[in-house]
Write a structure and sequence with these properties.
There is one protein chain. The protein is an alpha/beta fold. It contains 45 helices and 27 strands. The strands form 8 sheets. It has a 6-stranded mixed β-sheet with strand order 11-12-13-9-14-15, sandwiched between helices. Strands 21-22-23-18-24-25 form a 6-stranded mixed β-sheet, sandwiched between helices. A 4-stranded antiparallel β-sheet has the order 17-16-19-20, sandwiched between helices. Helix 15 packs antiparallel against helix 41, helix 18 packs parallel to helix 23 and helix 37 packs antiparallel against helix 41. The two termini are 63 Å apart.
């Protein structure tokens, strides 16, 4: 018994999965030992397999291990399980290939492929036969050790929703799952499926849990249970720059036992890749929205495959077929069936499984409202529900029947007369359940529930409630296994390797950072080119401005690292949950990969600036300068990493990080000196990392330097009235140079003057780096933003379905209502024909690549045409070509609309329902339809008629129940099916005669898809012409279509024509040519297989059967279609509407409607509105208290300009935080403009004017909080204050328009954010504060004149300082802040000291303006330029919206 027979391992394979170019993916010779660990490895009592610690792994196939009482192996030659396994009778033989009988001898033969690729006709395998085939293909040493036996008994789970209030998500759930079983879990949204999966995977949120959950008769250890279970989530979360092969290898190395040889890892990866048909994609990157990679269906296979590499005891698959066509889903689940047949049970939820996919499962579980409505053998379920009075029609997919029965039982009720006869013959009461509670009660009283209770009792008798943690297991015992498969140093090594691989795979990110550093270094270096060659007084101020610029750019440049951190965080959350690694290795990897990148940036940027600006030439000063740059870069990178780790999303991080950087800049010691900071804010100065960098660089440059004065810099100037006056009245013709040593300048700034002190600043910067990295670690470790794994669509309450069952009463009334009541009035449809249509694009080598070849067909009013084909067939491409949505490529062939070529008003006749449901999240459902009707219906219609039409559409699509709900986002808005119906409604509200729909049922469950397609059918019944792409239709959904255009891979036609009643015309066509669709097989799935869909992409056709595309070209149906197209499909006398303008709505009405909507959006986004106002209030109060009641001293005079500069800079930085929201609205703009709702100008004007109240509120809140606290100029009537408010408002609007322009030009929010921040940096340096006008080189002076920061800075400075007077204090009291001039007189040829005469450089506002090279006459000119700049940016944004196409199709 200790070993199992190996016979059968050498048998020839009758079953094979094909992949790629006819390469067998799996047959008898396939080594699948790498999917599950060898028997030679020791196994603990929980079913976990680990390699021997003492002698390393023993992988030899011929080696067999000792069988203990705890080990369970399976032998295909024995009917009963081996030692120690709780008995289960034919666990995997309960299913069959037919629906009710395991006998399939009467089933028709179907086409299949032999191993050499030739076609053969064979009888389909039943499920027991398929299981035995799978089991015979593996040698005994491949078998699974200790698969899971799962027991769930009387489990109830509730979450707290208020004080003493709980919501029950699972209630009294009991079932057992045994090895080799595949369980299909069905249920409508809100049934509790995801909550159950979270229970089984130990990922339940906090709540109240009652009952028992046992894994192999043991309570799961929450710290280690993840190693025994694989949870395949709905989301495809991967590192986008990793190749498919690297993704699998990383998962295998992290999940397989320690010391697993590399060749075993590669074997496992290769087998899984072949099993899932991904071998040809091994070296292709996974990709994401910005990085082109594999397709969506292939990503789903990667998500499933990485769990196959783990080899656990239980698989949980949460809707893994979403986004896959039916054939691909079947191919993948055949692989899942193989895995299950080796031992580990599989529990899976699916939305729209085909019949073939449904038949691969052994058990069926149906849930509703958190309760079990059925759990039992899949092939007995139909008889059970028929005994309750409900029958599945022969034409209905049983999976759809089970999905819909609990929610819509009336559709499947046995007629009353027949039901009464059945009840009379059985002598039972004539009652049947009609509610979910009724089905639950019926199940609890059934033999299936009794059998479930019996199984649980039998399987839980041994050591039932012994907790993992209650046992003391020695580390050297075979029963011991750690929390992580790999030790810490291996985890770290793997994470570091992956981090560097990401950098290598995405060189554009590195190049962008380096190029940005080079550009800014050249800019700053050229601005300060050889600034201090003579060490004049002006050079001293330039050095301070240069140092401030250096640290400011470093600080803001690090913001670019946040998107990457946020993108990787999703992957980290998932992989940490699955215990690929702990937080520390991932954290260390992030540091390791940033060190060389930051070093490279610092050396390049720092070196260029240092030598171009002519700073201190001593080598050790240069090295210290680079060290400061490097440590500051590391510290600020760590700060931005912390902000990203601690923020929910990019919007939050993008608001917090720049605000923090601006605050540290304010307290760096440049804008306000340390000795002028109030005591209540001095702590911010001490914790500002930029302060330490600024002081360190200042010391490094100024200590030991001497400075002199130009003749114009000596004080007092010769034109001073007291210059020649004798002392003590005048200066006696003497002049002084204010600062002659660098140490004196440092002393004025209250900085240390000893060079050795600079090293302490390096320690401080390193300390900030350590602190922020530690904060990042704890944020990663302890902060978790939900949802991590997306749950099912939201319920009507807006709460996740797992937090309560959906109240469907009102909804069901609408669903069951008489459809005639919802019909729209008849619409005059459209006639569209296309002949020999082709579409050609250029490949990477600039060669022609045809995507469509000679496609012909037509549609007429009332027709519902399905465009079908496998992935890569060109379905969406064809629809985009027909709908005139393509922005590139070459279109050939003939296309006529209503008998004429398409004109510029084609969009007025059409509606296009995109696959992505893009809406303004703040609109209600009713408002969205009203907006579409008011903007797109002809002007001949009155407003009342347009709104009435929108209400009819609302009713027809059964949206009345949710008409007043906001659409929201995918995460917190309407359910997926509701969003799709809203998307359709928005297009139907425009009353199109021709409607296009791109995969409207994708991602929906069976009932949701049915609701959507019923609505589409209603639209067709009203006379509209409809073209729809669809990739995975059930037979019922397929029956909604009247015609089909079928494509094969490569964009060739396979069929066009009528479907016929019950698909008779379609099946007769293929049957006539030898392709017989098996009974009960979904015709849609069958024809997709003929076109090459799925992982199995073997050749279609052969010696006996024609290739489908050739068959079509030679068919009589093709000839008939050609004849129809020659004669034309548009009937004589047909007169469609005539349009003479592109937009139905006038421009004034467009502006009015879009403005109202934009204003509503601002008001309903209260959180963002409050955040903007609060941010201005906080910063306004901060500045007001920091510069509280500024004195009239010399330092305060210059700090006034610094305050104004920071205020303008804050307005610029605040606008940057609006970029994510601009991009969210931009997607809606692209869709609506393409649909012909409005001009780009109308949209932009509405956006601009809707921002007025928000920015006025921001300007007022900032000004009021800051202006009066600082004690700024109020004039005689408060005019300067209002001038400040209006000017600041203009700066806000100009900054916002700059961000809107950046968003219109950029493909992504991250790029727009980086570019806008760089422009702000460029203009800030050239604004005249950090570097005065006279010190700006001639070749950059043009930038001074176009800087939008310069004009508000100059006008606000003039407004504030011009009427002011300033003093230097009293020279006798020791607080004198002016320059002391040594006055001497010559007596007998000797200079005799007479005394010190004070000179006050700044006596009036004009003196300040002179220092900063500002002109008082420019007050109103600058004011006008601010608003002119705003207007120019608006025009530029309009041009970008009008002509730049960021969405390419």
């Amino acid at each position: 018994m200790g070993t199992s027979s190996s016979k059968g391992s050498g048998n020839g394979s009758k079953y094979s999965i094909q992949g790629g170019e006819d390469k067998p993916l799996l047959h008898a010779s396939a080594h699948f030992s790498n999917v599950l660990d060898d028997d030679s490895n020791s196994e603990n009592e929980y079913g976990h397999i680990r390699a021997s610690r003492a002698s390393g792994p023993t992988w030899a196939a011929t080696t067999t291990s000792r069988v203990t009482s705890e080990e369970r192996y399976f032998d295909e030659d024995e009917d009963e399980p081996q030692q120690g396994l709780p008995e289960f009778a034919n666990a995997s033989s309960s299913g069959d290939g037919a629906l009710r009988s395991s006998n399939n001898q009467d089933m028709p033969l179907i086409m299949a492929y032999d191993k050499d690729g030739s076609q053969v006709m064979k009888r389909p395998l039943t499920l027991p036969e398929l299981v035995q085939e799978n089991r015979r293909q593996f040698p005994d040493w491949m078998r699974t050790a200790r698969p899971a036996t799962v027991l769930v008994e009387n489990v109830t789970f509730s979450v707290k929703i208020g004080p003493k209030r709980y919501r029950t998500l699972l209630e009294d759930v009991s079932f057992s799952v045994k090895p080799r079983q595949m369980v299909l879990l069905l249920g409508s949204p809100g049934a509790g499926k995801t909550t159950l999966f979270r229970l089984l995977s130990n990922q339940l949120p906090s709540g109240r849990l009652e009952g028992s959950f046992l894994y192999n008769a043991k309570q799961p250890d929450p710290r280690k249970f993840h190693r025994l279970v694989s949870y395949v989530t709905q989301d495809d979360i991967h590192m986008p720059a990793y190749t498919v092969g690297q993704t699998f290898e990383f998962a295998a190395r992290c999940q397989m036992p320690e010391n697993t040889p590399e060749h075993k890892i590669q074997e496992r990866v290769n087998t899984v890749l072949e099993l899932l048909g991904l071998s040809h994609r091994r070296d292709t990157i996974v990709g994401n929205d910005l990085l082109r990679g594999i397709s969506g269906g292939e990503k789903k296979r990667v998500t499933i495959g990485i769990e196959f590499t783990k080899g656990p005891g239980l698989y949980l698959l949460d809707e893994p077929s979403t986004g896959l066509d039916a054939k691909t889903a079947i191919d993948i689940f055949k692989s899942v069936r193989i895995i299950a047949d080796m031992g580990p049970p599989v529990i899976c939820t699916l939305k729209q499984p085909s019949v073939e996919l449904f038949n691969l499962f052994d058990k069926l579980m149906i849930m509703s409202q958190g309760k079990l409505c059925f759990f039992g053998d899949r092939d007995k379920a139909l008889d059970y529900f028929e005994s309750l009075g409900y029958r599945c029609p022969d034409t209905t997919n049983p999976a759809d029947f089970f999905q819909e029965l609990i929610d819509m039982p009336d559709q499947y009720a046995i007629p009353e007369q027949e039901w009464s006869e059945i009840c009379a013959s059985r002598q039972t009461p004539m009652v049947r359940p009609i509610t979910a509670e009724g089905f639950v009660d019926a199940y609890q009283q059934s033999e299936f529930a009794e059998q479930a209770r019996t199984d649980i009792q039998e399987l839980s008798t041994t050591d039932s409630h012994k907790s993992f943690m209650s046992r003391k297991v020695d580390k050297d015992s075979a029963d011991y296994f750690g929390q992580y498969p790999q030790p810490l140093h291996i985890q770290t090594k793997l994470c570091v390797e992956r981090a560097f691989a990401f950098v290598r795979r995405t060189p554009k990110n590195m190049i962008f950072r380096i190029v940005k550093s080079v550009i800014m270094a050249l800019y700053i270096g050229s601005m300060f080119f050889n600034a201090p060659p003579h060490h004049y007084q002006s050079d001293l101020r330039s050095i301070q401005g240069l140092v401030f610029n250096v640290i400011a750019f470093i600080a803001f440049a690090t913001l670019a690292s946040m998107p990457q951190v946020l993108m990787e965080r999703q992957v980290f959350y998932l992989q940490r949950t699955n215990r690929y690694y702990s937080t520390f290795p991932y954290f260390i990897a992030g540091i390791c990969v940033e060190l060389p990148v930051c070093a490279c940036e610092s050396i390049i940027y720092g070196s260029i600036v240092y030598w171009m600006a002519g700073l201190n030439p001593l080598f050790e000063r240069y090295i210290f300068y680079l060290l400061v740059n490097f440590l500051l870069t590391l510290a600020m990178n760590a700060y931005c990493r912390f902000c990203a780790c601690a923020s929910r999303n990019f919007q939050g991080a993008n608001a917090a990080a720049p605000a923090g950087i601006a605050l540290t800049l304010l307290f760096s010691g440049y804008i306000i000196q340390a000795n002028n900071i109030p005591p209540w804010f001095i702590w911010i100065y001490w914790i500002s990392p930029l302060r330490y960098a600024y002081e360190a660089l200042s010391l490094n440059e100024l200590v030991g330097e001497t400075y002199t004065c130009r003749s114009t810099e000596l004080v007092p100037p010769t034109d001073n009235p007291l210059f020649d006056e004798p002392f003590p009245v005048g200066y006696g013709g003497e002049q002084a140079c204010p600062i002659t040593e660098g140490s004196a300048a440092l002393d004025l700034l209250d900085f240390p003057t000893t060079l050795s002190d600079r090293w302490y600043y390096l320690l401080a910067l390193f300390g900030f780096f350590v602190f922020f990295q530690a904060a990042s670690y704890f944020a990663l470790r302890w902060i978790r933003f939900k949802p991590l794994l997306t749950s099912e669509p939201k319920t009507d309450s807006g709460v996740g379905n797992e937090y309560g069952a959906e109240d469907r009463d009102g909804y069901q009334q609408i669903l069951m209502a008489d459809e005639d009541e919802a019909d729209l009035e008849e619409v005059k449809g459209a006639y569209l024909s296309f002949h020999d249509l082709g579409y050609i694009v250029k490949d990477d080598k600039k060669n022609d690549l045809p995507l469509l070849t000679n496609i012909s067909g037509y549609v007429k009013p009332g027709m519902l045409l399905a465009l079908m084909g496998p992935s890569g067939a060109g379905k969406t491409t064809l629809m985009d070509v027909i709908a005139n949505k393509k922005t590139g490529g070459k279109i050939t062939g003939d296309l006529k609309f209503n008998g004429l070529p398409r004109d510029n008003y084609f969009h007025r006749f059409t509606g296009y329902v995109e696959q992505q449901d893009i809406h303004m999240s703040t609109q209600t459902v009713e408002e969205a339809l009203d907006f579409a009707a008011l903007t797109r219906l002809p002007p001949e219609w009155t407003r009342e008629e347009k709104l009435a039409h929108a209400r009819e559409t609302l009713h027809m699509l059964e949206l009345d129940v949710i008409r007043d709900r906001q659409i929201g986002t995918v995460a917190d808005g309407l359910a997926a099916e509701e969003r799709k119906r809203v998307t359709i409604g928005v297009e139907l509200a425009a009353n199109p005669t021709l409607l296009f729909l791109d995969e409207p049922t994708s991602g929906l469950d069976a009932m949701g898809a049915m609701n959507v397609m019923r609505c589409v059918q209603k639209a067709a019944s009203s006379g509209r012409t409809i073209i729809c792409t669809i990739h995975q239709p059930s037979a019922k959904i397929f029956s909604f279509f009247t015609h089909l255009l079928l494509l094969k891979r490569g964009g060739e036609m396979v069929y066009f024509g009528d479907l016929g009643e019950n698909f008779s015309t379609l099946l007769e066509y293929f049957g006539r040519h030898g392709y017989q669709c098996p009974r009960r097989k979904n015709p849609a799935d069958y024809i997709l297989e003929l076109t090459g869909a799925g992982v199995d992409t073997g050749p279609v056709g052969g010696e006996d059967l024609p290739e489908p595309a050739d068959m079509w070209r030679e068919s009589r149906e093709a000839e008939a279609m050609e004849e129809i197209l020659r004669q034309g499909i548009t009937p004589p006398g047909f007169h469609p509407p005539v349009f003479d303008r592109r937009y139905a709505c006038g421009i004034l009405d467009q502006v009015k409607l879009t403005l109202i909507r934009a204003a509503q959006a601002h008001w309903r986004r209260k959180g963002i509105l409050i955040l903007k106002v609060a941010r201005n209030v906080v910063i306004g109060l901060l500045l007001g208290l920091l510069f509280f009641q500024l004195s009239d001293g010399q330092v305060a005079a210059q700090e006034t300009v610094g305050l104004i500069f920071f205020s303008v800079l804050f307005a610029n930085l605040g606008a940057l935080s609006s970029i994510p929201g601009i991009f969210e609205d931009r997607a809606v703009f692209y869709r609506e403009r393409g649909a012909g709702c409005y001009y780009s100008f109308s949209y932009l004007i509405s956006v601009v004017f809707s921002d007025f109240p928000v920015n006025i509120l921001q300007a007022l809140s900032f000004s009021v909080c800051m202006y009066f606290l600082v004690g700024m100029n109020l004039g005689t009537n408060g005019g300067p204050f209002f001038f400040f408010v209006v000017n600041y408002f203009g700066a806000l609007m100009a900054s916002l328009s700059l961000c809107q322009l950046g968003a219109a030009l950029s493909p992504s929010a991250e790029i727009a954010n980086a570019v806008s921040a760089m422009i702000v940096t460029l203009f800030s340096l050239a604004a005249g504060f950090l570097l005065t006008k006279n010190n700006i080189p001639d070749y950059w002076i043009w930038l001074y004149y176009i800087s939008f920061v310069r004009y508000p800075l100059e006008s606000l400075t003039i407004n504030q300082v011009l009427p002011q007077t300033y003093t230097c204090g009293n020279i006798t009291t020791g607080d004198y802040s002016g320059v002391l001039v040594k006055v001497t007189t010559t007596i007998d040829g000797h200079d005799v000291f007479e005394g010190m005469k004070g000179y006050c450089p700044i006596n009036s506002g004009q003196d300040i303006l002179n220092i900063f090279d500002m002109n008082a006459d420019n007050l109103w000119l600058d004011f006008g330029v601010v608003f002119a700049y705003w207007a120019i940016l608006i025009v530029a944004t309009w041009a970008a919206l009008q002509f730049v196409k960021n969405v390419k199709r």
